[in-house]
UniProtKB/TrEMBL annotation:
<dbReference type="InterPro" id="IPR000713">
    <property type="entry name" value="Mur_ligase_N"/>
</dbReference>
<feature type="domain" description="Mur ligase C-terminal">
    <location>
        <begin position="319"/>
        <end position="485"/>
    </location>
</feature>
<dbReference type="Pfam" id="PF01225">
    <property type="entry name" value="Mur_ligase"/>
</dbReference>
<dbReference type="GO" id="GO:0051301">
    <property type="term" value="P:cell division"/>
</dbReference>
<keyword id="KW-0573">Peptidoglycan synthesis</keyword>
<protein>
    <recommendedName>
        <fullName>UDP-N-acetylmuramoyl-tripeptide--D-alanyl-D-alanine ligase</fullName>
        <ecNumber>6.3.2.10</ecNumber>
    </recommendedName>
</protein>
<dbReference type="InterPro" id="IPR004101">
    <property type="entry name" value="Mur_ligase_C"/>
</dbReference>
<dbReference type="InterPro" id="IPR005863">
    <property type="entry name" value="UDP-N-AcMur_synth"/>
</dbReference>
<keyword id="KW-0132">Cell division</keyword>
<comment type="similarity">
    <text>Belongs to the MurCDEF family. MurF subfamily.</text>
</comment>
<keyword id="KW-0961">Cell wall biogenesis/degradation</keyword>
<dbReference type="InterPro" id="IPR051046">
    <property type="entry name" value="MurCDEF_CellWall_CoF430Synth"/>
</dbReference>
<dbReference type="GO" id="GO:0047480">
    <property type="term" value="F:UDP-N-acetylmuramoyl-tripeptide-D-alanyl-D-alanine ligase activity"/>
</dbReference>
<comment type="function">
    <text>Involved in cell wall formation. Catalyzes the final step in the synthesis of UDP-N-acetylmuramoyl-pentapeptide, the precursor of murein.</text>
</comment>
<feature type="domain" description="Mur ligase central">
    <location>
        <begin position="108"/>
        <end position="294"/>
    </location>
</feature>
<dbReference type="Pfam" id="PF02875">
    <property type="entry name" value="Mur_ligase_C"/>
</dbReference>
<dbReference type="InterPro" id="IPR013221">
    <property type="entry name" value="Mur_ligase_cen"/>
</dbReference>
Length: 504
């Protein structure tokens, strides 16, 4: 961050110095909310959470090298006392941005793909100048200002991820760091229960384009009607990306390889170039196009954009991480979070990546879907149960709709074809509570073909560790497994255990 004396921090935050705080002491290190992340010269912000109160770690932060604590009550340490530490953090970040007249702020929002797009775009802007971007998914009222406060006088770009849990959240984040470019990816079903409908989600996401100045640029997904409709909500210039010919930045001739990685021609108003993504899943094309469109607006040549997109590998953990074990088992760890749209995208990618192999999946009931939760979770179960898996593990609570949907789909696909009387490649028996049915290999399939001649297992387990234990019994060399669920289930732990107990 830009060095600031405690007196100036107190002025910005309307705080009062206490605990023998020296007003001339200068904060030069990072601003942090985790006392374990304190470095010499840091400012430690004490946040009271549901389970942990940062004020209890004030003395520890000072011993670790923090200059002072930004706190909402007196602590036994040099401190700046404010009414609300989170609000003060936001004000501190907003003041920091105002001292950086040469920085370009780019905001990215959407129901899915924010983090991947942010990572790609940060790679592009780094070709032009010093770039600050969130670590992982720092995209809320705490992570957003913490990211902004990492900037210094050399920073040319801030690529910021903006999340919304309700109407008004994105508007507040744009107040902290007013964007010049706003990228809207999609309007999906994430947090559907919180918002009450996709129209309300679109209203919240559109706060990003509403914040843009007349001199700014709104980068919108032409293939999503609710995103395209946001063009009327901004005074900024609008540029579209997508797969259709109406998009200025578009993908042509998309081809997906055997590992689920897409290649395409990137078409722009000033030329075209070939892109071969190293990211997994065809849905990565849309994220790449969004990043390309923003990069193009910054003046990057199409050849440079294509080169960077083709070289990019995942930067943030647990998002379509594909790892091959020594025995040939492929583990797809997409466990960071999940919603109905991202589940469909993950299963689509897994179908390609696991073609010709026995495939297994570990999932969990989706959350924050409101009144539509049971129906959408039953739909998730039908998606998984009809995906041609050799086995499905549903982990955690509220699994009944998922299990019911999975059993229904598996039983339906196991019915003999009315035309031929034979089973198709996705037809299988179902094992639950000790009952099982054996799937027969279709005509022409080699003996022992993956997924045939064995029961399709559908089981429920209590947690991530139990899911890993179940997989340990099921997996054989050459198999493939998809692990995906809502963040609260912690299914990344399943992937870690399957891969040998350490994060890959």
């Amino acid at each position: 961050m830009i060095p600031l004396p405690l007196a100036r921090i107190a002025e910005i935050t309307s705080g009062a110095l206490s605990g023998m705080a020296d007003p001339r002491a200068v904060v030069r290190g990072p601003v942090v909310i985790d006392s374990r992340a304190v470095e010499p010269g840091s400012l430690f912000v004490a946040i009271k959470g549901a389970r942990v109160d940062g004020h209890d770690y004030a003395a520890h932060a000072i011993r670790a090298g923090a200059v002072a604590v930004l706190a909402s009550r007196p602590v036994e340490a040099p401190a700046v006392i404010v009414p609300d530490a989170a609000a003060a953090l936001a004000e501190l970040a907003a003041a920091q941005v105002r001292t950086l007249p040469n920085v370009t702020v780019i905001g990215v929002t959407g129901s899915a793909g924010k983090t991947s797009t942010k990572d790609l775009l940060a790679r592009l802007t780094a070709r032009v100048g010093s770039t600050i971007a969130p670590q992982g998914s720092f995209n809320n009222e705490l992570g957003h200002p913490l990211t902004v406060l990492r900037a210094d006088l050399d920073t040319r770009f801030m690529v910021l991820e903006l999340a919304a849990r309700n109407i008004g959240h994105i508007k507040e984040l744009t107040r902290i760091a007013p964007p010049q470019i706003g990228v809207v990816l999609n309007v999906g079903t994430a947090h559907l229960g919180v918002f009450g409908g996709k129209e309300a989600i679109a209203k919240a996401k559109g706060e990003l384009v509403e914040s843009l100045p007349r001199s700014g640029v709104a980068v919108l997904n032409a293939d999503d009607p609710l995103v395209r409709g946001m063009a009327t909500r901004t005074e900024a210039r609008v540029t579209y990306y997508g797969r259709g010919e109406s998009a200025a930045i578009r993908a042509e001739g998309v081809v997906v390889d055997a590992r689920g990685r897409a290649s395409f021609t990137l078409r722009t108003p000033s030329g075209a170039a070939h892109v071969s993504l190293q990211l997994y899943g065809e849905h990565a094309v849309e994220n790449a196009l969004a990043a390309a469109a923003a990069g193009y607006e910054l003046g990057l040549p199409v050849a440079t954009i294509a080169e960077e997109l083709s070289e990019a590998t995942p930067r943030s953990r647990w998002r379509m991480e594909v790892t091959d074990r020594a025995d040939g088992v492929t583990v797809v760890n997409d466990a960071y979070n999940a919603n109905p749209d991202s589940m469909r995208a993950a299963f689509s990618a897994f179908e390609v990546l696991g073609k010709g192999r026995r495939r297994f999946a570990v999932i969990a009931a989706l959350r924050e879907l409101g009144d539509e939760g049971p129906a959408l979770n039953a739909e998730l179960g039908r998606l998984a149960g009809g995906a041609g898996l050799a086995g499905l593990i549903v982990a955690g609570p509220d699994a009944e709709p998922v299990l019911a949907g999975a059993h229904a789909a598996a039983q339906a696909s196991a019915q003999p074809s009315a035309q031929t009387g034979a089973q198709t490649p996705t037809q299988a028996g179902v094992q639950a509570g000790g009952q099982a049915g054996a799937a027969q290999a279709p005509d022409g399939a080699p003996p022992g073909a993956p997924g045939y001649g064995e029961p399709v297992r559908i089981v429920h387990v209590p947690d991530a560790e139990a899911a890993a234990a179940e997989l340990a019994v099921w997996l054989r060399p050459g198999d493939a497994v998809l692990i995906k669920g809502p963040r609260a289930m912690g299914l990344e732990r399943t992937a870690e255990l399957v891969l040998g107990g350490a994060t890959q």
